[in-house]
Amino acid sequence: MISDITFFTAFLAGIVSFLAPCVLPIVPGFLAYLAGSTIADSSVRRRSIFVNTIFFVVGFSLVFAVLGILLNSVLAGVSSIFQVWLSRIGGACIIFFGLYLTGLISLPFLEREYKMSVGSRFSSRYATSFVFGAAFAAGWTPCVGPVLGAILGLATAQPGSAFPLLMSYSVGLSVPFLLVGLFASQASAFIQRFIGVVRYINIVFGVLLIVLGILVFTQNLNLIANFDLLNSIILS
User: Of residues 59 and 45, which shows the higher confidence score?
Assistant: First the structure.
Protein backbone atom coordinates (compact mmCIF):
# COMPACT_ATOMS: atom_id res chain seq x y z
CA MET A 1 0.00 0.00 0.00
CA ILE A 2 1.31 3.43 -0.90
CA SER A 3 1.61 5.99 1.89
CA ASP A 4 0.24 9.51 1.71
CA ILE A 5 3.83 10.81 1.85
CA THR A 6 4.67 8.88 -1.31
CA PHE A 7 1.65 10.35 -3.07
CA PHE A 8 2.67 13.81 -1.90
CA THR A 9 6.20 13.23 -3.20
CA ALA A 10 4.80 12.40 -6.65
CA PHE A 11 2.58 15.50 -6.55
CA LEU A 12 5.53 17.64 -5.51
CA ALA A 13 7.59 16.09 -8.31
CA GLY A 14 5.06 17.39 -10.83
CA ILE A 15 5.44 20.91 -9.49
CA VAL A 16 9.25 20.63 -9.54
CA SER A 17 9.09 19.43 -13.16
CA PHE A 18 7.15 22.57 -14.05
CA LEU A 19 9.81 24.64 -12.29
CA ALA A 20 12.61 23.24 -14.47
CA PRO A 21 14.77 26.30 -15.26
CA CYS A 22 14.88 25.56 -18.98
CA VAL A 23 11.09 25.25 -19.23
CA LEU A 24 9.57 27.66 -16.69
CA PRO A 25 10.55 31.02 -18.28
CA ILE A 26 8.98 30.21 -21.65
CA VAL A 27 5.70 28.66 -20.43
CA PRO A 28 3.52 31.84 -20.43
CA GLY A 29 4.52 32.82 -23.95
CA PHE A 30 4.15 29.25 -25.19
CA LEU A 31 0.62 28.86 -23.80
CA ALA A 32 -0.38 32.22 -25.27
CA TYR A 33 1.02 31.14 -28.64
CA LEU A 34 -1.06 27.95 -28.57
CA ALA A 35 -4.14 30.10 -28.12
CA GLY A 36 -3.14 32.34 -31.05
CA SER A 37 -2.26 35.22 -28.77
CA THR A 38 0.77 36.94 -27.26
CA ILE A 39 1.77 37.86 -23.73
CA ALA A 40 1.01 41.50 -24.55
CA ASP A 41 -2.69 40.84 -25.17
CA SER A 42 -3.05 37.81 -22.86
CA SER A 43 -5.19 39.77 -20.41
CA VAL A 44 -7.71 40.36 -23.18
CA ARG A 45 -7.73 36.74 -24.38
CA ARG A 46 -7.50 35.14 -20.93
CA ARG A 47 -10.39 32.73 -21.53
CA SER A 48 -8.92 31.48 -24.81
CA ILE A 49 -5.50 30.90 -23.27
CA PHE A 50 -6.98 29.11 -20.26
CA VAL A 51 -9.17 26.78 -22.34
CA ASN A 52 -6.21 25.87 -24.56
CA THR A 53 -4.17 25.23 -21.43
CA ILE A 54 -6.85 22.80 -20.22
CA PHE A 55 -6.55 20.82 -23.47
CA PHE A 56 -2.75 20.88 -23.16
CA VAL A 57 -3.00 19.50 -19.61
CA VAL A 58 -5.51 16.82 -20.66
CA GLY A 59 -3.08 15.78 -23.40
CA PHE A 60 -0.14 15.02 -21.12
CA SER A 61 -2.40 13.64 -18.36
CA LEU A 62 -3.82 11.07 -20.76
CA VAL A 63 -0.32 9.88 -21.69
CA PHE A 64 0.64 9.52 -18.03
CA ALA A 65 -2.60 7.63 -17.33
CA VAL A 66 -1.95 5.16 -20.15
CA LEU A 67 1.66 4.74 -19.02
CA GLY A 68 0.51 4.05 -15.46
CA ILE A 69 -1.98 1.41 -16.62
CA LEU A 70 0.66 -0.28 -18.77
CA LEU A 71 3.22 -0.34 -15.95
CA ASN A 72 0.65 -1.75 -13.55
CA SER A 73 -0.19 -4.52 -16.02
CA VAL A 74 3.47 -5.38 -16.70
CA LEU A 75 4.52 -5.36 -13.04
CA ALA A 76 1.44 -7.16 -11.68
CA GLY A 77 2.86 -10.63 -12.30
CA VAL A 78 6.43 -9.95 -11.18
CA SER A 79 7.81 -12.57 -8.79
CA SER A 80 8.97 -11.58 -5.31
CA ILE A 81 12.62 -12.36 -6.11
CA PHE A 82 12.57 -10.22 -9.24
CA GLN A 83 10.75 -7.51 -7.29
CA VAL A 84 13.71 -7.19 -4.94
CA TRP A 85 15.95 -6.38 -7.90
CA LEU A 86 13.38 -3.97 -9.31
CA SER A 87 13.37 -2.16 -5.97
CA ARG A 88 17.16 -1.93 -6.00
CA ILE A 89 17.24 -0.65 -9.57
CA GLY A 90 14.40 1.79 -8.90
CA GLY A 91 16.05 2.98 -5.68
CA ALA A 92 19.39 3.49 -7.43
CA CYS A 93 17.68 5.54 -10.17
CA ILE A 94 15.92 7.71 -7.58
CA ILE A 95 19.19 8.33 -5.72
CA PHE A 96 20.97 9.15 -8.99
CA PHE A 97 18.36 11.71 -10.04
CA GLY A 98 18.33 13.14 -6.52
CA LEU A 99 22.10 13.67 -6.67
CA TYR A 100 21.68 15.36 -10.05
CA LEU A 101 19.03 17.76 -8.74
CA THR A 102 21.23 18.75 -5.79
CA GLY A 103 24.05 19.56 -8.20
CA LEU A 104 26.43 16.94 -6.79
CA ILE A 105 26.72 15.32 -10.21
CA SER A 106 26.46 16.93 -13.61
CA LEU A 107 25.34 15.52 -16.96
CA PRO A 108 25.47 18.00 -19.88
CA PHE A 109 22.77 16.27 -21.93
CA LEU A 110 20.30 16.82 -19.06
CA GLU A 111 21.11 20.52 -18.91
CA ARG A 112 20.50 21.63 -22.48
CA GLU A 113 17.74 24.12 -23.06
CA TYR A 114 14.39 22.73 -24.11
CA LYS A 115 12.37 24.97 -26.40
CA MET A 116 8.72 24.14 -26.83
CA SER A 117 7.58 24.90 -30.35
CA VAL A 118 4.62 24.05 -32.54
CA GLY A 119 5.70 22.89 -35.98
CA SER A 120 2.21 22.49 -37.43
CA ARG A 121 -1.33 23.27 -36.39
CA PHE A 122 -4.66 21.56 -36.72
CA SER A 123 -7.75 23.42 -37.83
CA SER A 124 -8.74 23.55 -34.16
CA ARG A 125 -6.46 25.26 -31.67
CA TYR A 126 -7.83 22.96 -28.99
CA ALA A 127 -6.73 19.91 -30.96
CA THR A 128 -3.29 21.48 -31.42
CA SER A 129 -3.01 22.09 -27.67
CA PHE A 130 -4.14 18.54 -26.84
CA VAL A 131 -1.71 16.89 -29.27
CA PHE A 132 1.19 19.02 -28.13
CA GLY A 133 0.35 18.23 -24.49
CA ALA A 134 0.57 14.53 -25.34
CA ALA A 135 3.85 15.14 -27.16
CA PHE A 136 5.19 17.05 -24.16
CA ALA A 137 4.58 14.00 -21.93
CA ALA A 138 5.79 11.42 -24.45
CA GLY A 139 8.96 13.39 -25.19
CA TRP A 140 10.14 13.47 -21.55
CA THR A 141 12.53 16.29 -22.25
CA PRO A 142 16.05 16.06 -20.84
CA CYS A 143 15.32 19.00 -18.58
CA VAL A 144 12.21 17.45 -17.03
CA GLY A 145 13.45 13.85 -17.28
CA PRO A 146 15.31 13.55 -13.94
CA VAL A 147 12.21 14.21 -11.84
CA LEU A 148 9.92 12.06 -13.97
CA GLY A 149 12.57 9.33 -14.04
CA ALA A 150 12.64 9.30 -10.24
CA ILE A 151 8.86 8.84 -10.09
CA LEU A 152 9.05 6.01 -12.62
CA GLY A 153 11.75 4.42 -10.48
CA LEU A 154 9.46 4.66 -7.46
CA ALA A 155 6.58 3.16 -9.45
CA THR A 156 8.79 0.29 -10.63
CA ALA A 157 9.68 -0.53 -7.05
CA GLN A 158 6.01 -0.76 -6.06
CA PRO A 159 3.89 -3.02 -8.30
CA GLY A 160 0.35 -1.72 -8.61
CA SER A 161 1.34 1.82 -7.67
CA ALA A 162 2.31 3.13 -11.11
CA PHE A 163 -1.11 4.51 -12.06
CA PRO A 164 -1.87 6.44 -8.83
CA LEU A 165 1.71 7.71 -8.61
CA LEU A 166 1.72 8.99 -12.19
CA MET A 167 -1.69 10.56 -11.69
CA SER A 168 -0.40 12.35 -8.58
CA TYR A 169 2.58 13.52 -10.64
CA SER A 170 0.22 14.67 -13.41
CA VAL A 171 -1.91 16.67 -10.98
CA GLY A 172 1.21 18.34 -9.57
CA LEU A 173 2.31 19.26 -13.09
CA SER A 174 -1.19 20.38 -14.13
CA VAL A 175 -1.91 22.84 -11.32
CA PRO A 176 0.88 25.36 -12.11
CA PHE A 177 0.19 25.06 -15.85
CA LEU A 178 -3.47 25.94 -15.25
CA LEU A 179 -2.55 28.85 -12.97
CA VAL A 180 -0.18 30.27 -15.57
CA GLY A 181 -2.81 29.74 -18.27
CA LEU A 182 -5.32 31.69 -16.20
CA PHE A 183 -2.94 34.52 -15.32
CA ALA A 184 -0.51 34.47 -18.24
CA SER A 185 0.38 38.17 -18.28
CA GLN A 186 0.94 38.37 -14.50
CA ALA A 187 2.70 34.99 -14.42
CA SER A 188 5.38 36.09 -16.87
CA ALA A 189 6.50 38.96 -14.63
CA PHE A 190 6.26 36.80 -11.50
CA ILE A 191 8.38 34.03 -13.01
CA GLN A 192 11.11 36.43 -14.08
CA ARG A 193 11.20 37.91 -10.60
CA PHE A 194 11.56 34.62 -8.71
CA ILE A 195 13.43 32.46 -11.24
CA GLY A 196 16.50 32.48 -8.99
CA VAL A 197 14.65 30.58 -6.25
CA VAL A 198 14.11 27.58 -8.53
CA ARG A 199 17.61 26.21 -7.96
CA TYR A 200 17.06 25.98 -4.20
CA ILE A 201 13.73 24.21 -4.70
CA ASN A 202 15.51 21.64 -6.86
CA ILE A 203 18.18 21.10 -4.18
CA VAL A 204 15.59 20.52 -1.43
CA PHE A 205 13.63 18.12 -3.61
CA GLY A 206 16.86 16.38 -4.61
CA VAL A 207 17.64 15.67 -0.95
CA LEU A 208 14.12 14.30 -0.51
CA LEU A 209 14.64 11.98 -3.48
CA ILE A 210 17.95 10.72 -2.10
CA VAL A 211 16.32 9.78 1.22
CA LEU A 212 13.39 8.16 -0.60
CA GLY A 213 15.76 6.31 -2.93
CA ILE A 214 17.72 4.87 0.00
CA LEU A 215 14.49 3.61 1.58
CA VAL A 216 13.44 1.99 -1.69
CA PHE A 217 16.87 0.44 -2.34
CA THR A 218 17.06 -1.04 1.17
CA GLN A 219 13.46 -2.34 1.07
CA ASN A 220 12.51 -0.04 3.94
CA LEU A 221 9.82 2.02 2.24
CA ASN A 222 7.37 0.60 4.79
CA LEU A 223 8.94 2.99 7.33
CA ILE A 224 7.03 5.78 5.60
CA ALA A 225 3.78 3.85 5.97
CA ASN A 226 4.60 3.28 9.64
CA PHE A 227 5.22 7.01 10.01
CA ASP A 228 1.79 7.71 8.49
CA LEU A 229 0.21 5.21 10.88
CA LEU A 230 1.94 6.81 13.87
CA ASN A 231 0.69 10.25 12.83
CA SER A 232 -2.85 8.88 12.51
CA ILE A 233 -2.69 7.43 16.04
CA ILE A 234 -1.33 10.68 17.48
CA LEU A 235 -3.95 12.82 15.74
CA SER A 236 -6.87 10.52 16.61
Answer: 59
